Amino acid sequence: MRFAYADPPYPGLSRRYYAEHSDYAGEVDHRELVSRLEPFDGWALSTSVEALPMVLGLCAHLDVRVA
After folding, report:
1. Is 15 helix (H, G, I), strand (E, B) or coil?
2. Number of H helices and number of E strands within the chain?
């Protein structure tokens, strides 16, 4: 079995925490991130409570659980 864990900057907060980093490239594309997680047998994605509805919307076609 293959599992993945993603802990990207929470939606809308990338600039606040990472703008000073030389490799800063803007906000994470969470739609693309979820699509990259789909092939795994299981995965976890950290996000904020404020962003959870948006992230869950990206997962509407998947059988996901929130913990």
Report:
1. helix
2. 3, 2
pLDDT tens for 13-28 read: 777 777 777 777 778 8
Record the pTM: 0.81
Report the distance separating Cα 41 and Cα 53, nearest Å. 23
Is residue 45 within 8 Å of residue 6, measured between CB atoms?
yes
What's the half-sphere exposure (Cβ side, CA atoms, 13 Å) at 66? 11
CA neighbor of 35 nearest in space, from 2, 3, 52, 59: 59
| Residues 55, 30: Cα–Cα separation, whole Å | 7
